[in-house]
Amino acid sequence: MSVADQVPIQSGFHAKSTGAEVLSGIDLSGKTAIVTGGYSGLGLETVRGLASRGATVVVPVRSPDKARETLASIAGDVQTAPMDLADLSTVRQFAASILESVSQLDLLINNAGIMACPEARVGPEWESQFGVNHMGHFALCQGLLPLLKATAGTRVVALSSTGHKLSDIQWDDIQFERTDYDKWKAYGQSKTADALFANGLSRRLRDSGGLAFSVHPGGIFTPLQRHLPKEEMIALGWLGDDGEPSELAKQGFKTPEQGASTTLWAATSPQLDGKPGVYCENCDIAAATDPDSPFARYMGVDPHACSDDSADRLWSVSEKLLAEA
After folding, report:
1. Residue 245 bridge partners (DSSP)
2. 3-219+256-324 domain in CATH 1.10.8.10?
């Protein structure tokens, strides 16, 4: 696929559609789903939506007590198992336990992530945002790939972001070892990586009939902003001087339930059959970025995030990094 495949299909939904709306009429009885980061923010609403339609949802958890508390309000079959995306040994253990315990994996939602955090290293000295947002999920997918390929019609959804516009992959220094760390460029790289991951995976699932997509959920206040000081969110226009959501945020930001809707749509909608690897936003396929639009910073997908060549290059780099870890 390429940016030429990024053509909206007029899905009938919109930016403020809810998860319940996009799931109307969808029956997930007998389906098994995994949702990373499924016990807070968008992930929690994603779990709620899938479970409400009959799916068995497995949530990998880093904080069992917090997960137990937040997931208690969800009706349906929701299970937890330990995993930390920053710790490859736990990712591998989780994947192995899933291979042993379930016979099919219909949905894998790579939802968890960190944003604009101070410089840190995870695993074998990977930059933390690339390491958690991309490599942790890449390792999880590699571990689950036999099950994904064995499940007819499996779907994988990777949460990207309009943040992909901040940076292509820094091919010469992915881990910021020789260049000064920039938390926003690092975040942008990781979100580009998430989009390219879905592109690359979609072609690796083609023979078994599986699909993979990336999604931009929209602007939402969730724990993802925990590393941003109030002053920076004011400077970004997200908060007013009084520390409350700005008028811009009130108009443009979504509730967590609205923010989860594009993920749920990509995971379940028959409208995406035959459209592997596309980047979605506002419950539709995103258009290519229009550089002349006043909304170019906030909408659409840039060419560097939907390139087959870049996706395959990143896949090879990621395999090598994982093999060396």
Report:
1. 239
2. no
